[in-house]
Automatic annotation (TrEMBL):
<keyword id="KW-0325">Glycoprotein</keyword>
<dbReference type="Pfam" id="PF01453">
    <property type="entry name" value="B_lectin"/>
</dbReference>
<dbReference type="InterPro" id="IPR001480">
    <property type="entry name" value="Bulb-type_lectin_dom"/>
</dbReference>
<feature type="domain" description="Bulb-type lectin">
    <location>
        <begin position="35"/>
        <end position="177"/>
    </location>
</feature>
<dbReference type="InterPro" id="IPR051343">
    <property type="entry name" value="G-type_lectin_kinases/EP1-like"/>
</dbReference>
<keyword id="KW-0732">Signal</keyword>
<dbReference type="InterPro" id="IPR036426">
    <property type="entry name" value="Bulb-type_lectin_dom_sf"/>
</dbReference>
<feature type="signal peptide">
    <location>
        <begin position="1"/>
        <end position="21"/>
    </location>
</feature>
<protein>
    <recommendedName>
        <fullName>Bulb-type lectin domain-containing protein</fullName>
    </recommendedName>
</protein>
<keyword id="KW-1015">Disulfide bond</keyword>
Amino acid sequence: MCISWVVLLYLVLFLTPSCPALVTALPAPSYLTPNASTSWTNSLSAPDSVKFDDGSFARIILVSGSSDEVYGACGCGFYCNQTSCNTQLFAIFSLSYRSGKISESDSPKVLWSANPSINATTLQLTSKKGLVLKDGNGTAVWSTNIGSKSVAGLNLTDMCNLQLLDDKSATIWQSYDHPVNTLFVGQKLVAGQQLTSLGGLFSLHVTRQGFFAYINSIPPQRYYTLAANNIRYVQFLKDRLYIFSDSLWQLWYL
């Protein structure tokens, strides 16, 4: 299985593609430092871009892990699922490697995105604002909220967590705090947060009163309920989803 080192919780199904031999070489770092000109534009002609066999396209900015063996990795960058790129995402996505090269036959699976419904073409990394995403007109459509803190580095961990770090390597901002459609091993979903599948058909909600799953029709249809009091968060650990109360005692696991 391509992603053998991390178990990902998907909302609809588990995707376990095989690793074919069609590959393309692509060196990429897992850590970057900001400067005045650190920016990326979504372009198929960029040297760090890959076009996959299904027509999807990615410009890869960061890659986690080592590419020495057959394995699955996390990439971070621009992604679109059609050649025309009608919707361009800044995203974290799965990548399949073989012998140090990215497989073009295994299209990426989007695991997190900053702009699921807004088109974007340029990403900037600055010490004062962190990450800033802009559309084709140069208008900022998304940014990290770092207040007055200063960014010293951008890091993508082996567990697919995108982090902004200060000069002491402390985390200023991380994608784990802003879940979208996937919950990673060790990641928490706190009361008030939710996961929504790509396309928006299914969602999981955590509230103080319980854990709920919906089909997002009109009106929404609840198809799973786990009622409880004073839920603080749920956390994905190993192969189970654990639910914790205010006292941090485990209530249930799924």
